[in-house]
């Protein structure tokens, strides 16, 4: 356990209406003191925090740890190291592993491997056995093991009847929330990118926006039909999706929530001609019109959370002909900088709202406690330098993979470190 004294740091937590500048003393995993000119006990690592912000630890609710099954791409250990390096103290890992996370046994093994790491790991369980969409997963057993969110991520639960049964089954478990990778698979067979002018020009098979929008609308209707069950849209990429969630919220359905990735609010399908397979993902990068609809969704509060969909792949897997390259990019070490630069610095949302999007709302959706910054509290903090510009350099990344279009980008808002459960990790970015 490291003890640290952060001097003259801005403490910011909208959940506790906290915004003040003070010294913070952290001893033995707890906040031992907050005040002016605190004395540093012997052996305490003292840092000048005058250009830093300390916020409740950031939480990425949608990432792929690749373990079990594809540890050449990532492991629980490297994924958590990457998360801490990027400024996260917690994450939720998706169940499209091999085997899929559809039994308590797999959940326990992931939790056991992550228990001594500085990043809290929560496991998302599969909605159906093997993510095949044929039989419901044993949700009771998964819930008992700590699972709160269920998703067949990577695939959509195709059958509305199966989704209805999932909502009804999950209603027995108070904190359970169903999430969906929203893709009407019959409309996306063999797709390589968004359907539209760029796909036509490149001669690539497309994934139309309506294929996402139909499932979002279907599921919101099903969630309401099954007694207003909580429902969370994964990595939303379309204007129609934003509209569906917005109108659900306007009807008072506050338990209909959604997340958006930095790459979807930043890039469009035009990026493919520059970055090729590092701009290939599912859902695909859309058009400027959709991107602006996402920004509007941030502005009016329709979008609840930023999640990266961190999807590590080996270089050899990505560097093949475009249509056959695997989908997804890494995201944990660029999320804070991209979100700060293109949402806060660009004037789309306030810094307080960014903290809600990256630290508070993801935990609320998953029924996790919100870290407070007050004397006696367990420390769970993200420290970052909002005004510091830095260049993304993948050689400094701790993820095993390097599939990102953002290498070399100059960003504002640099992760400085995280403090969680007595662990202090300074970022090497
Ligand atoms: Zn997905």
Short structural summary:
The protein has 429 residues and is of the alpha/beta class. The protein is 29% helix and 23% strand. Strands 1, 2, 3, 4, 5, 16, 17 and 18 form an eight-stranded mixed sheet that branches. A five-stranded parallel sheet has the order 9-10-13-14-15. It has a three-stranded parallel sheet with strand order 6-7-8.
Commentary on this structure:
The chain contains 13 helices and 18 strands. With 429 residues, it is α/β, with parallel strands linked by helices. It folds into two domains: 104 residues, Urease, subunit C, domain 1; 309 residues, Alpha-Beta Barrel (TIM Barrel), CATH 3.20.20.140. A hairpin with a 2-residue loop joins β2 and β3. The mean pLDDT is 97. The structure holds zinc ion (ZN). The site of zinc ion (ZN) has 5 residues, from loops.
